[in-house]
Amino acid sequence: MIVSAHLQQLMPEFLAYARSITSASDSAEDLVQDAIERALRSNNKPDVLDQLRPWMFRVIRNLHYDELRKLRVRREYSAGMGRLSEESMQTGDHARDVLIRRAFEKLPPDTREVLFLVDIMGLKYAEAAKVMDVPNGTVMSRLSRARRALLELVEGPSEDRKSNGR
Q1: Nearest 5°: phi and psi at 18?
Q2: How buried is residue 139: exposed, middle or buried, by Cβ count under 10 Å (0-12/13-18/19+)?
Q3: How high is the pLDDT of residue 166?
Q4: Predicted confidence (pLDDT) per residue in 16-40, tens digit
Q5: Using CA atoms, how far apart are residues 161 and 166, in angstroms rounded to an integer?
Q6: RNA polymerase sigma factor 70 region 4 type domain: which residues (predicted)?
Q7: How far does Cα 118 stand from its chain's mean position?
Q8: Is the pLDDT of residue 58 over 60?
Q9: Intervals of CATH 1.10.10.10 along the chain
Q10: What's the gap between Cα 92 and its chain centre?
Q11: Which fold has domain 93-166?
């Protein structure tokens, strides 16, 4: 209960900080609400006011930058999909698009997951590793195998890959 009282006491400061890093007051209020929700669920939150205050500022900041990153990835994905659509309309290679999508669907779920997170959503290896709860190196090796598997489904096994024992 002490933490709840501290959070209530610090609420004006949290809102002021959130407003300073966001562009809209509605966004700031949502950001603070999300941060407080996260703080209340956390088992590692500080109990002392002097420690809780900077900790909450970090939570607010991290949530804000996470949201900005998500928006950037969504914009890049949308722009990329727009480019792909334009390219396929210009080249008229709808059959290849369908082939790639069908090949993607044939891949095992863990293979599709790593391709989706890194190649489609644009997550960095470390971010994908956190999502999948695996080491960074595992993401890199899974991604390499997934790309190779997709390529083989789309283009068939190449002579170069066969001769290298892949």
Answers
A1: -60, -40
A2: buried
A3: 47
A4: 999 988 877 788 999 999 999 998 8
A5: 5
A6: 99-150
A7: 9
A8: yes
A9: 93-166
A10: 32
A11: Arc Repressor Mutant, subunit A (1.10.10)
Q: Within a 13 Å sphere around the CA of 51, how many CA atoms are in the beta-carbon half?
A: 6
pTM over 0.70: no
Contacts of the segment 106-109: beta carbons below 8 A, 24+ positions apart? 106/153, 107/146, 107/149, 107/150, 107/153
Sign of CA dihedral 84, 155, 99, 90: positive
CA 60 to chain centre: 18
Q: What is the CA radius of gyration of the chain?
A: 22
The answer to whether residue 110 scores a pLDDT higher than 60 is yes
What tokens appear for 123 in the block?
């997550």
pLDDT at 76: 73
